[in-house]
Amino acid sequence: MTLILALTCKDAVVMAADSQATEAQGGNLLAGVRHDVEKLHLLGPNMLWGASGSVGVIQDIEDALAEWAANNPGKLDDPAKRMKPALVKVVATVLNAAYGSYIQVPGRQPNPPMTSVLFAGRTAGARWILEIEENGGAEFKDGFAAIGSAYHYANVAAAMLKEYSASTRELIHGQLLALRILDTAVTAAAFGVGGALRLAVVSPSGSKVLSGDEVAEARDL
């Protein structure tokens, strides 16, 4: 289970995520094994992405996006509206294949490979956030978005902090707001999210996943 969020700040975009992954044992998620994974990924020099859902599907999406980026280096700084159809096509192709091969095992709880993806970028000089839903539908988000099992907690936390106007704040303030929203949502959620908190940014100098020490420094602020 997962929580990934993105918010825009002044001239940059911040993504944050928990790091806990839970693998069901014998079809029982409550008896699952928990471990930390990296949920925020770079895509070219000016984009980030993260996904919530089936680990296997996310791995296939990662491979497909890497192949697309390698084959289209000249398109990695396109305007968001031009980028959207290409990203949707890559993700939807993987989702169609996964959904088409899904088999419900008799006697086991359903565990369909539904997966959603959140992109954040600063291309052609503009900040943007794009969510691709489990059904392949895609929508640009205005300033904030969250996906995963605890997304509703993140939405409430973000609404409670909206007076800070993240979109007008400097990058460091955007990081602090993203951490506060993520930390609040993880604390409120009863199950499934946790582990070390992660941060990544897309600024005029490019995209970067922050190290554990850099996240710790931000939390100290």
What layout of secondary structure does this protein have?
Elements: E1 3-9, E2 12-17, E3 20-25, E4 28-36, E5 41-42, E6 47-52, H1 55-71, H2 80-100, E7 116-123, E8 126-132, E9 138-140, E10 144-148, H3 151-160, H4 171-188, E11 198-203, E12 206-209, H5 212-220
Taken as a percent bin, the fraction of beta residues is 25-35%
Helix and strand content put the structural class at alpha+beta
Radius of gyration: 17 Å
> What strand order characterises the main sheet?
10-1-2-11-12
Assembly state: single chain
- Give the overall shape, derived from the CA principal axes: globular
Keyword list:
221 residues, alpha+beta, five-stranded antiparallel beta sheet, 34% helix
Note down, in words, how this protein is organized.
By secondary structure, the chain is an alpha+beta fold. 34% of the residues lie in helices and 31% in strands. Strands 10-1-2-11-12 form a five-stranded antiparallel sheet, with helices on one face. Strands 5-6-7-8-9 form a five-stranded antiparallel sheet. A hairpin with a 5-residue loop joins β8 (126-132) and β9 (138-140). The longest helix is centred in the middle third of the chain and has 21 residues, at 80-100. 38% of the residues are buried. The mean pLDDT is 91.
